[in-house]
Design brief:
This protein has a five-stranded mixed sheet. It is globular and about 30 Å long. Helices cover 41% and strands 32% of the residues. Helix 1 runs parallel beside helix 2. The protein has four helices and five strands; from the N terminus they run E-E-H-E-H-E-H-E-H. The mean pLDDT is 94.
Length: 111
Amino acid sequence: MKFKTSEVYNAAVISFTGKLMGGPEAVDFHNKISSYLEAGKKNIILEMSDVKYVNSSGIGNIVRAFSTVKDAGGNLKLAGVSDKVEGVLSITKLLSIFELFNTVDDAAKSF
């Protein structure tokens, strides 16, 4: 669960690469979400175009981040979700919860 961060327009962007699973990086991810919220950055985009695989822990981390952001009065959106990951979101009935966009720009403009 590797990621890097950036900012676009009025949104904080967390870009994932490789496999989206649990592990020590999950703690870093949630700490980054918390630091954005504490800094008043409440529009967050998870960029997932380079995610090759996601398991239940990875989905759990995304759901936890979504809940944390929503509870803080923010918005979390997904960008660049592959067909494979979208299939997992569909099976788990999470497509109705997340807003999906083709690009980070599209997601940022939607805030």
